[in-house]
Design a protein that fits this description.
By secondary structure, this protein is of the alpha/beta class. The chain contains 29 helices and 21 strands.
Length: 731
């Protein structure tokens, strides 16, 4: 079987169908692109063919390019992959240009064969770029149908003609949300930009064939191939067009803080390309795309956010045990966390029993799902039938006997070991012996909690991030006695609810919180030192973090920080070193400033809970120091506070796979996505440079002492991925 098939219908329309065997969604490989070209050549050379329709055999069109192709080209090209990458990109341009010109006479622009793209559902990346090269795009009107060019979110930009074609079609102003924000549009919202027409799914192919059979020579000539073409919104050298590009440049720098090279490259390709003929513009686009592909940040983002993420989701570290798909899950606790877990489970087709002490609380937990589904209906993403199905799967009750038949329990009660132990014992007495028991906790040691279980080998930690319906990461924690089947069960469950899992060994704060708490603490510590809070927050943002440490502690709540600090100090005793942080944190709590939920924290808030700026009262308690530190010093403190903990987690065996360290950091707390994660960042700057940075921070305390592993890496000059990456593990 092949990724594309060719069939000439009796009406003279050649239908090229994209249907990758064994894949739920089409992705484009190097070989498949050549196959498409062969079919196009066949159709153009056959006098019996009146036109061509490119479509999909699946309910979606394409998920984009298989990014392993780009990684493979880079790997096989030695020290200078740029020529091979540029050649590959230009070959793609040549094929898409062949589709676009469709055999027409280059002088008269006549005699070409119409080519329509029939898009049945999701269409992203290279799929959209193929569609843009076609003469007409028809999309099925489906609730989940989306079309767009989201490459910017992976550290790339549309480099197969997407940038040039969209800008020349609608102008930079209209193109900006599609290209610079990676927005995926609903079918009807895409009409006029990416799509020409939207039809009912059952009419898709017939309508595409009808258009092809009735198209004229004029219908298939692209605007930029006409002599009278003018750039929508004005060309860059005209006043209106120039101001558009100035505004776009300001927007990019405002949003990316200069750490995402793909956004700058995209705008440069659009600006320079708009001043030259179309085919020259494609070459400019290819050069900038090659430049981005060779940038270490792009390679790191592709590796972590695509290759590594996909490997983890497919079970790269799953124990070799039979399928552990969950059919019925019991959730203990219907608070915000339990309600969120219930929603994603029911939405994935799993039967849910949602337990709470009071029926009112259980019903409130179920209503959380109803609220999410109602919002989906308002946006026309969810049907009434879908809503009824999801809610019908949730049994909100106080009766523990309803848990009989569950093959997985997720306990999400208060962070109190005694309460958790009591629930463990009560529930294990009811459920079957094969049932896996998972506790949702962010701080409590799994091995200790498992002591309440009569089957500790079937006891595991599953740490969800809030809000559950939006956060992609789930941290699975193995206790000392946790068995392989429990790990496989947790992984299969996470896959069912369409989240990304990482598996770590039990230790204080596990992995994610172990790294994020020092980031928050370093920010709070600097407030106590008299560092300008605005400087702290902006330093983080200029590193590419979505929120600064002070905003983050407001979001997670200051009283939670106080609770964690007290518990940590009680456990660590004399080894505890965050008293300077506690001074600030406890004072804030004493002032009643508990964070965003209280509309009072390090930030001030209006009555609707919207941030209106940093709280001025901080300066009264902690006046600004006369000498403020350099921006880079603050950034080094914030970065190293996290990165050193990640290295220690790997060194101590909490992390068993650095891919999980990188993916978990980006998805769990937004660690500078441009860097690819802490280990990718260390490989980017070199372990020696990291040690040098830490030496410059040594006077601040032992928290910046370099782990032995980092010293070893610096001495050897090696990289973390060479030593601990998947190839090294396989060897």
């Amino acid at each position: 079987m092949t990724d594309f098939t060719y069939e000439l219908h009796d009406d003279g329309v050649a239908v090229i169908t994209w249907d990758v065997p064994g894949k739920s969604m089409n992705v484009l490989t190097r070989e498949a692109f050549d196959l498409v070209e062969g079919f196009i050549d066949t159709a153009l050379a056959d006098d019996a063919v009146k036109g061509i329709v490119i479509t999909s055999g699946k309910d979606s069109f394409a998920g984009g390019m298989d990014l392993n192709v780009l990684a493979g080209i880079r790997a096989e090209s030695g020290d200078d992959p740029a020529p091979a990458l540029f050649e590959f990109i230009m070959n793609g341009h040549r094929i898409l240009r062949k589709i676009e010109r469709a055999g027409m006479d280059p002088k008269t622009l006549k005699g070409g064969k119409p080519i329509a793209c029939a898009i049945p559902g999701l269409c992203a990346g290279i799929g959209t770029e193929i569609a843009l090269a076609c003469h007409y795009r028809i999309m099925a009107d489906t609730p989940k149908g989306r079309i767009g060019l989201p490459e910017i979110l992976l550290g790339l930009f549309p480099g197969a003609g997407g940038t040039t074609r969209v800008v020349r079609s609608v102008g930079l102003m209209a193109a900006a949300p599609i290209l610079l924000e990676g927005k995926m549009l609903e079918p009807r919202r895409a009409v006029g930009t990416l799509v020409n027409e939207v039809v009912a799914p059952e009419d898709l192919l017939a309508r595409a064939k009808d258009w092809v059979l009735n198209a004229t020579d004029a219908d298939i000539v692209k605007p930029w191939d006409r002599k009278d073409y003018k750039m929508p919104g004005g060309a860059p050298y005209h006043p209106a067009g120039f101001m558009t590009y100035v505004g776009a440049s300001a927007m990019i720098n405002g949003k990316t803080k200069g750490v995402y090279p793909a956004a700058k490259a995209l705008l440069s390709a659009a600006y320079e390309g708009a001043m030259v003929p179309f085919d020259t513009a494609l070459k400019i686009e290819a050069r900038y795309f090659t430049q981005v592909l060779n940038d270490p940040t792009s390679a790191a983002m592709i590796r972590s956010l695509f290759i590594n993420k996909e490997a983890l989701e497919k079970g790269a570290n799953r124990p070799d045990v039979p399928d552990q798909k969950v059919s019925k899950v019991g959730i203990l606790g219907a608070g915000m966390m339990g309600a969120g877990i219930a929603h994603v489970s029911a939405n994935a087709g799993i039967e849910v029993v949602l337990i709470d002490q009071a029926q009112e609380a259980a019903d409130k937990g179920k209503s959380y799902s109803e609220g999410i589904l109602d919002k989906g209906m308002q946006r026309k993403k969810v049907s009434q039938e879908k809503k009824d199905e999801v809610l019908g799967r949730i049994n909100a009750t106080t009766d523990l006997e309803a848990l009989k038949g569950c093959d997985l329990i997720v306990e999400a009660v208060f962070e109190d070991p005694a309460v958790k132990a009591e629930m463990t014992q009560k529930v294990e007495a009811i459920v079957g012996e094969a049932c896996i028991f998972a506790t949702n906790t962010s701080t409590l040691p799994i091995t200790e909690l498992a002591k309440a279980s009569v089957r500790p080998e079937q006891f595991i930690g599953i740490h969800f991030f809030s809000p559950v319906d939006k956060m992609l990461l789930v941290e699975i924690i193995k206790g000392r006695e946790t068995g392989d089947r429990a790990v496989a069960k947790a992984l299969d469950f996470v896959r069912q609810i369409r989240k990304t899992p990482i598996v770590v060994n039990d230790a204080r704060f596990f992995y994610a919180n172990r790294c994020i708490i020092p980031y928050i603490n370093e920010g709070i510590r600097m407030v106590g030192e008299g560092v300008n809070p605005a400087l702290i927050e902006h330093a983080a943002q200029f590193l590419g973090f979505p929120v600064g440490p002070l905003q983050l502690v407001d979001e997670t709540s200051i009283d939670l920080g106080v609770k964690i600090a007290k518990a940590t100090k009680a456990a660590m005793g004399a080894a505890y070193r965050d008293d300077a942080v506690d001074e600030v944190l406890f004072w804030m709590a004493g002032e009643g400033r508990m964070g965003r939920k209280a509309r009072a924290g390090f930030y001030a808030y209006d009555d609707a809970g919207k941030r209106i700026g940093l709280w001025q009262g901080l300066g009264d308690k902690y006046p600004l120091a006369d000498d403020q530190p350099e921006l880079t010093t603050i950034q080094h403190r914030l970065m190293m506070a996290q990165v050193l903990e990640a290295v220690r987690a790997l060194e101590e065996g909490v992390l068993e796979d650095i891919r999980e360290g990188d993916v978990g950091a980006i998805l769990g707390w937004g660690f500078a996505p441009w860097s690819g994660g802490p280990f990718s960042w260390l490989d980017m700057i070199g372990a020696g440079k990291a040690v040098e940075i830490c030496e410059g921070l040594a006077e601040l305390g032992p928290r910046f002492a370099t782990p032995k592993l980092l010293d070893e890496m610096a001495a050897s000059g090696g990289s973390f991925y060479d030593r601990f990456g998947p190839e090294a593990r396989a060897a």
